[in-house]
Piwi domain-containing protein
Amino acid sequence: LQVSLEADGPRKAKSFHITIRKIEEINIERLLNYLKGSAQLTGEIQTCVTILNTVLNYKPRNNFAVVKRGVFPETNDRPKYLYGGIELKTGFCQSMRPAIKLVLGYMIVNVDTCAAVFHPDGSLLDYVAKILGKRNVEELRRGISDSERRNLERNLKGLIIKVIHRGEKQTKYKIERLTSQAADFTTFTNKKEGVEMSVADYFAQTYNHSLEFKSLPCLVVKKNLFIPMEVCDILPGQKYEKTIGDKAKADMIKFTACKPQERFDKIENCIQNIFKHNEDENLRDFEIKIDPKMMTVDGRVLKSPTVMFNANSKQQNIFPVQNGRWNPKDLVLLRTKPLHNWSVLVLADRRSCPMEQVKRCMIGLKQKLIEFGMEVGNDPYINYENPQGNIESSLQISVQKAHNNKSFPPQLLIVIIPRKPSPLYGEVKMIADTKIGIVTQCILAEKLRNPNNKSLWANIGLKINAKLGGHNCNLIKEELSTIGKVPTMIVGADISHPGVGQKDQPSIAAVCASVEPNATTYYGRISVNKQIRNETIECLGEMISDLLKAFYEKNKVLPKRMIFYRDGVSEGQFRSVLNREVIALKNAFDKIYQKDPPNLTFIIAQKRHHTRFIPINRRDADKLGNCIPGTVVDQSIVHCNEFDFYLQSHSGLQGTTRPTHYYVLHDENKFGADEIQNLTYRLCYLYARCSSAISVVPPIAYAHLLAARARLYPTIEVPGEQNCEESESISSIPLVSKELAKVMYFV
């Protein structure tokens, strides 16, 4: 085919030669056989599903703005602006998936809301004022500082704008950078007149336009073409590609939080007025018919476990009947560690964080630690240091000040940092973990404004006891009978990929494994994948071998069963990850075990999906309208050949709660559905950092934290061609010795 595109603004007319080539024929019959339960999932069946999704989404993706898998129709709703002036838009996404056990032979369409961040359309000056935190545009008349100019350039680079000073001729341009000087000092050679003149003078002379904001820098587009900001508008529909800050994230959570009934009403309205499946000619041509009604599925609620604290306290057993949560007030922790030597390092100025305020807060924290049952020594020494100075030296000084009781080494350093996000946090953790070898607990300075915030001290106290090696709580033996009968290792694994602006960084894999029968103590290992964004843990065998040795050192016996929870894998990668990682685990077993290797159960946990549930009867819901913790759906949505289930183990504080989707891909332990579902749910109550059930099993949560921590270390490098089997997993961080690694890897 020969295709021509007409000229559009700066874009010239172009002609293209297009070739359409037949690649293969897709047999939909094989997908139908899979849906009926008579065939296994193959790559060809996944291709069929991909094709059907292309047909399903073709029309809406051509009619509306698109970001990834979501479509964003224009609405009359009031715009929602996040911190920094970026605009939040809500849209919808849909996907077709293999269907259900109860009605064989069908696909289902999953529809949900989604959100994306865009540059606001309209006046560029308004956007500039919001980026720089100005109260209004008038404050820009005084000009901006050089640091503000650099910040502005980072945010505006790549943005498409149009000029509005030429009447109907509104040419479009892409911003490449900003000038270093203001418009009245930015000069160029006017070729028509052969003189050098400023941009401000040129606009006054050529367009009779006297610039009102001549103190602002100009935009640089094309090859040194200078345009004043005040004559530019931002074109609509431009996604914000950069990482958003914590304040903008907080705004985003607040705006997108939507109660279940409201969310489901929006989805139904979208099906009727946006996707309009029954009016889609593409679906009609493929003879695809979609029932617009929501599916009704059966669910059940698992019994909440009994959480055990200190046997000597009056509140020995706490039954968390209040929506998956329990109040840490008046609780004595199960097993505490004494705190003999500690100190406080304040990396904030005395005006925002006065000495007396810090002292009162540390008294409150100490009192809570004592109430938890911890033995706490003297009040901590409080040391103020310059946050712009040498952080390693500041930490070393504070560690020395913590050495009150000479019979014990320094144990804990409380670090007060001025704000979040802050590079100080990463620097503190990196130095403390890899150079000094001491436990740290960072606290934001703003949190110290209320010394009587007992819930804050309780939350921090739980973290401190766990970091020192204590056990906060446990379940009664009957609740963990599944893993208590024979030595069992619970494992969680995750891969952290580089984010926006981190393209040169590697993918980091983390594995955490329980080393005690009650599954409350975990050791961890990290490694760096050679291939960036590889979803397979390349050094898994070596990491597991290391953890099996640690299990043996702790228990004098190797585990006879391993339950492996794997996070961060999409459905299209199931078979690849399963084949490679199960083989890696088996190879590790062969090297460690002389005979009788452990039975392996391999489970994928998915949190990034768009399936939501709402109880039909209001009495079955919590106060927000969500399903109550312990809700399991396993009989209707999942495929007949797959052992998988949705589990909502936690209680949401706002919005619609998202269940976790667990796929049991390999099971040598021959667990029944009740066994694995109850075990998974009960494990969610054993997370050391809070007093509630969490949304995913703790070893995955710990692996996620460990991978995120490892990314703070600048010494991590992508491994070369060495064989993973010949190196030690700890050596992925060159500065960490095995002695110091105990601080990092003990939870």
